[in-house]
Amino acid sequence: MEALRCEHLTRAFRGRCVVDDVSLALEPGDIYGLVGRNGAGKSTLLKVLAGYLAPTAGTVAVGGEVLGPCQTSAHLGCLIEHPAVNPGLTGFQNVMVRALAQGLPNPKAEVAEVMEAVGLEAVAGHVARGYSLGMKQRLGLALALIGRPDVLLLDEPFNGLDPEGVRQVRCLLADLALQRGCAVLVSSHVLDQLERLVTRYGVLREGRLVAQMTAQEVEEACTDYLCVEVAEAPRALAMLEQALPEAVFTMMPDDAIRVAGATADTVGDALLAANVSVRGLYTHTRDIEDYFVDLMGGAGPVRGAPGGAAGSETVTCASSFTEPSKDGDPRA
Ligand SMILES: Nc1ncnc2c1ncn2[C@@H]1O[C@H](COP(=O)(O)OP(=O)(O)OP(=O)(O)O)[C@@H](O)[C@H]1O
Question: Which residues does the UniProt record annotate as the domain ABC transporter (predicted)?
Answer without folding.
Answer: 4-231
